[in-house]
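HUMAN: I'm a chemist; might I ask for a sequence paired with its structure tokens?

ASSISTANT:
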Amino acid sequence: MTKPLSGKVALVTGGSRGIGAAIARRLAEDGADIAISYAVSADKAEAVVKELKAKGVRALAFKADQADPAQVESLVKQVAERFGGLDILINSAGVFVTGEVGASANQIAGFDHQIAVNVNGVASAVRAASRLIREGGRIISIGSIVGDRTPFPGLADYSASKAAVAAYTRGWARDFGSKRITVNTIQPGPIDTDMNPASSDFAPTLTALTALGRYGRAEEVASAVAFLAGPEASYITGATLNVDGGLTA
């Protein structure tokens, strides 16, 4: 049986760990050739590439700093050149910096870096992909439920960065519509990763806020991405899908 993404090329930024790695694995299972990017951990990236190749697809890792627009543009171009095209762009790379307004002398530096990665990095990747992604392609960004609401102090900057991604998604859906390229955002809730482990001291508070009473798994986010990347989601664009266990219900 032909897999739904056979013959497709996908780039997953931040694909060396956590949600990004889970997305890369799932898209490979669905038949796509996979490029992943990483910022610092070459060993982790190569380990993921090895897993992907074992699934019978082509896979490569590329080092790129998402805060640097030139590196992001080069990344997208390299992927299209090495794989012979680009069909799916997954913007998964991101950073999480907290702090109440005025609380830290280093806050502006942290703010600038967070915006550079979470907003500018996504925008740079999409702009580069706009010249290369094939008709009928898919662009999916990983946002956060705090893009819709900010339930705790210290999240304002992070919330704003993710809200910007959702707003861009709605606008880009219009820009890409004539090429039948869909653009969507997935907003995870509490997901068990090294960035936000279910074993943390704060985890019980987040768990209690969900309708399902548990943290999510990276694979559950990846399943939502796989649906939006596949042929059955061809009429969904400009949408935001919360994968949050009912936290925002």
